[in-house]
Amino acid sequence: TxxxxxxxQATGKVRSLPEVREFLTRVDPNGHVIFDHEETQKNSYIIHxxxxxxxxxxxxxxxxVDKTTGDVRAQF
Length: 76
What we know:
- By secondary structure, this protein is of the alpha+beta class.
- Helices cover about 25% and strands about 40% of the residues.
- The chain contains two helices and four strands.
C-alpha cells in the first residue's frame, strides 16, 4: 500500500480541524494531539486528542487518518 501522508502531516491535519482548534483554544491550550498507533489493516494512523488533568487524562476524540488520501474521520 502506498503511503503519501506522514505521521507529522496526519497529526497536523487533526490539529487544524475546527473542533480541535476550538478545544485547544477554549478548553486546554496545553492539550495534546499525538500519534497513538497505526491501523495497518486499514492503512491509517490513529491520532489521540486529549488533555491532562490532575488525576487522569480526558479524551476529546480519536481520529483516523487515511495514509493514502489524508482523509480524517472522527471516531466519536
